[in-house]
Amino acid sequence: MTEGRLVFFGELLIRLTAPGNELLMQSSSLSLHVGGAEANVAIGLAHLGHDCAMISKVPSNALGRGAVAAVRGAGVDCTAVTLHRGRMGLYFLSVGAGLRASEIVYDRTGSSFAATGPEDYDFDRLLAGASLLHLSGITPALGPRSADAALAAARAAKRLRVPISFDGNYRAMLWEAWDSDPRSVLTELIGNADILFGNHRDLSLVLGKAFSGDGEDRRREAAEAGFAAFPGLRLIASTARHTVTADHHRIAARVDLRDACHQTAEIDVTGIVDRIGAGDAFAAGVLHAYRSGGDAGAMAQSGLALTCLKHSLPGDASRFGQTDIDAFHGGGLDVRR
Questions:
Q1: Of 114, 216, 265, 288, whose CB neighbour count within 10 A is largest?
Q2: Does residue 100 form part of some domain?
Q3: 3-class secondary-structure state, position 36
Q4: pLDDT, tens digit, for every residue of 184-226?
């Protein structure tokens, strides 16, 4: 396994979920989970034995302290998660069922993290000795200050020769809430990245072109266009999801390298408990195999295992280890004793 600390920059969030498959406000109780796109990947990799550290800001109150404690308790170093003015970012989830999709309501405007800018972080110090920086497109979508902070983090990593992993995570509602230029910001972030988690739609957005193929051919066409436009990119990873019902999806995983690619067979994922964070689990699985020296097939299969397993687990983050990945690929569904 490649040595060195993995660093994650992004917002910690508290999620409040309606019980069972109820609608929001249908009853008076909500369950609480702590997550955030980058933190979810950090937690997933920490459970796979990697040294992970989070950079973020939280408010000095019970919510901020509790979020930090939860991430630290999952094995992630939170020394660089510090206090800032503002409030805790929240989001609310109503879990879908059958033909009713899940629904999310964001409440994160004015959060401690969204209020921070590049001057609030000493990225040269925080990234010193890191072997990877992981960012997502959610951070720049939060507003102009956090967009500048994400760009500053990527520029510092590039200057320090720290490889960058970037998950597009395009959130139209967040970008459209302010006078934003997502194409420009995302183009620079992807241009600095070594690893991109994104599909043909993400690449179509930044490249300003449509891809004419279908299925695997379209994904390879998009990947080749991405590699041509961004010379620093070494790897592009994505999932293909077909939603049958809210609790039955079909999922395949794909990894494209410049000279090779691998797409897995489609897996039926039924009886879904919680699909939130499945993309972050996929990223953790791919990065785990990547840092362990795996080829395109190994990375795709590792990512597929964690994204499928995540659908069985309440909360935002994968908490599975290598034994669970091995068991998934072994097909054993009986009780493990």
A1: 288
A2: no
A3: coil
A4: 999 999 999 999 999 999 999 999 999 986 788 899 999 999 9
Which residue reads 């054993």 in tokens? 332
Q: Which two tokens stand for residue 195?
A: 């690893």
Question: Rounded to whole angstroms, how far apart are CA atoms 42 and 67?
Answer: 14
pLDDT exceeds 70 at position 1: no
Partners of 58 in beta bridges:
83
Distance CA 86, CA 107 (A): 13
Which residue, 225, 227, 240, is CA-closest to 303? Answer: 240
CATH number at residue 136: 3.40.1190.20
Q: Is residue 113 part of a domain?
A: no
Cα–Cα distance for residue pair 139/150, rounded to 1 Å = 7
Chain segment 220-246, per-residue pLDDT in tens: 999 999 999 999 999 999 999 999 999
* Residue 66 falls inside a structural domain: no
Token pair belonging to 284: 């953790």
Q: How far apart are the first and last CA of the chain?
A: 28
- DSSP three-state, residue 207: helix
Please say if the pLDDT value at position 334 is more than 90. no
Structure tokens at 133: 């920086």
Two structure tokens written together for 36: 């955030």
- Residues β-bridged to residue 239: 253
Q: Are the C-beta atoms of 42 and 56 separated by less than 8 Å?
A: no
With beta carbons less than 8 A apart as the criterion, state whether 167 and 190 touch.
no
pLDDT of residue 337: 55
With the CA atoms of 308, 314, 317 and 319 taken in that order, what torsion angle do they form, in degrees rounded to the nearest 10?
A: -80
> pLDDT digit string (tens) for 116-141?
999 999 999 999 999 999 999 999 99
Note the pTM of the prediction, 2 decimals: 0.96
298 is written with which tokens? 């190994």
Q: Could you list the residue range(s) of the whole structural domain that residue 130 is in?
A: 5-11+40-55+120-326
pLDDT at 34 over 80: yes
H or E stretch at 189: helix 182-192
Number of domains in the chain: 1
Half-sphere exposure of 151 (CA within 13 A, CB side): 16
